[in-house]
Design a protein that fits this description.
With 98 residues, the chain is of the alpha+beta class. The protein has a single domain, classed as GMP Synthetase, Chain A, domain 3 (2-Layer Sandwich), CATH 3.30.300. Helix content is 40%, strand content 23%. It contains three helices and three strands; from the N terminus they run αββαβα. Strands 1-2-3 form a three-stranded mixed sheet, covered by helices on one side. Strand 2, helix 2 and strand 3 form a beta-alpha-beta unit. Helix 1 runs antiparallel to helix 2. 16% of the residues are buried.
Length: 98
């Protein structure tokens, strides 16, 4: 079971942004993954409130978890100004469009 959890964490860390050729982790959006009992808790950080692809991003990080027998709960926060500037710089460098 421990190996299965590690594999899920590895897969979640590899989830890419649909419009930017980088992983959510590299963009600073995937802040934390933790596990308790039968549930993965994932913390996503967004540069702005109410981004249009919030649900799509949430589903994409839960997909590897849902393929197993675990539950997935995603909490979202808004990036600090410094995190947002870093995100926007990376987004500009790796933008591929939707």
């Amino acid at each position: 079971m421990e190996k299965n959890k590690e594999e899920i964490i590895r897969l979640v860390n590899k989830v890419k942004h649909p419009a930017v050729d980088m992983t959510l982790k590299d963009l600073g959006m995937l802040k934390d993954i933790s596990f308790k009992e039968d549930t993965f808790f994932i913390l996503l950080s967004f540069p702005f409130p109410n981004i249009p692809i919030k649900d799509q991003l949430t589903e994409s990080v839960c997909e590897p978890v849902k393929k197993s027998d675990f539950k997935c709960i995603v909490e979202t926060v808004i990036m600090s100004e410094e995190e947002k500037q870093d995100f926007l710089q990376k987004e500009g460098q790796a933008w591929k469009g939707l």
